[in-house]
Design a protein that fits this description.
about 160 residues, 7 helices, Arc Repressor Mutant, subunit A, three-stranded antiparallel beta sheet
Length: about 160
């Protein structure tokens, strides 16, 4: 463990050459927290043979009324490139958590459908994530709401919604 904040030091050095220190500091902090939280979530999900990306796919399917979505729609909802969905579904399918089936109307589309084992695993994995505060237990609820609200304009400006 360092005895100084490396992001503060990077910002100090940055300021000696360029402007935009607050922007650089915020983005660097955000990216580091992303790495830390994702690492923690993946560690919590590893005993279930899941990554956070596969967990998100299962949760998404569990939220649908039919328990299934076309792969392309999954990419949209998960906000990832459609080609990223295929390996996620492949792994979930090989684990028996999802099955592929033909779309009933669109012959070009394939549906991913959550299995009963997938639904059960979502419940167990979610309980583990909740018990660990989703990797952000160091923050109180008002702070968590504030983080979400602070990031909303960035997401909106990027066309997230």
């Amino acid at each position: 463990m360092l005895d100084f904040d490396p992001i503060d030091e990077a910002a100090r050095q940055w300021g000696l050459r360029w402007t935009g220190v607050p922007e650089m500091h915020a983005v660097t902090s955000l990216m580091r927290v992303h790495q830390l939280v994702l690492s923690r979530l993946d560690a919590l999900l590893r005993p279930h043979d899941l990554t956070f990306a596969r967990y998100e796919a299962l949760v998404l399917l569990s939220f649908t009324s039919a328990g299934s979505l076309p792969l392309g729609k999954m990419g949209e909802r998960l906000q990832v490139h459609p080609t990223s969905v295929t390996p996620i579904v492949d792994r979930l399918e090989s684990a028996g958590l999802v099955r592929r089936r033909p779309h009933p109307v669109d012959r070009r589309a394939v549906l991913a459908e959550i299995t009963p084992a997938g639904r059960e695993l979502v419940e167990v994995a979610t309980a583990d994530l909740l018990a660990a505060g989703f990797g952000v237990a160091a923050l109180e609820e008002p702070d968590l709401r504030q983080v979400s609200e602070l990031l909303r304009p960035v997401r909106e400006a990027a066309g997230d919604f």
